[in-house]
Amino acid sequence: MTTDFTLHPMLANDCIEIYDLPLCKVLLMNDSQYPWLILVPRKPALTEIYQLEWQQQQQFLNESSVVSELLMSMFDGDKLNVAAIGNLCPQLHIHHVVRRKTDASWPKPVWGQHPAIPYQQETLDVLVSKLQAKFAQIAP
């Protein structure tokens, strides 16, 4: 992967890096209200999916599907929200958020509804270990 890639400071501040897939860096959003992973293609200066080369777009879709299936199997959600918004953070990043009818924001989008509640360190350590182990088993 390219050495010109750097993670945007907003993502670095709000997330925990947990795994590198062939194209994307996998981040865990530090908000314990929702199981929430973010994929960031490790390519410099991208703001939109169409800016990826065709083969990279296919790889991204594969990686997004892996993340989606992993999240829903681990967290048994009612719905999975997948979104590339980027209004505040311009670096291309794609959210994968497990939603439950009982979560704090249901049925509204998670953005702007409630302040983030960071994970307690012990809970975070366990979750990151579980996610890393799952990715190591199933990653493309």
Automatic annotation (TrEMBL):
Keywords for this protein: Hydrolase
InterPro entries named in the record: HIT-like, HIT-like_sf, HIT_Hint
GO MF annotations in UniProt: hydrolase activity
Xref: Gene3D superfamilies: HIT-like
Domain of life: Bacteria
Pfam families attached to this UniProt entry: HIT
SUPFAM superfamilies, A to Z: HIT-like
Record domain HIT: where: 37-106
Name recorded for this polypeptide: Diadenosine tetraphosphate (Ap4A) hydrolase
Source organism: Thalassotalea agarivorans (Thalassomonas agarivorans)
